[in-house]
Amino acid sequence: MERVLAYLKDVKAELRKVSWPTRQQVWVSTLVVIFFSLALSLYLGILDALFTALFGALLG
Prior knowledge:
With 60 residues, the protein is mainly alpha-helical. Helix content is 88%, strand content 0%. The chain has helices at 2-17, 23-59. The longest helix is centred in the last third of the chain and has 37 residues, at 23-59. The N and C termini lie far apart (72 Å).
């Protein structure tokens, strides 16, 4: 039990050393991820439509 308490004490000490992002940094990072996810989805959707049309014309 003593080892568990020592471990938890060390964890608490390490968490105090962490440099946590501000609310604004988290918000901006989230928006960047959403934007790039949507952009990549759009890009891949367009490529899929083009290749579908191309192979449909070649094989159809």
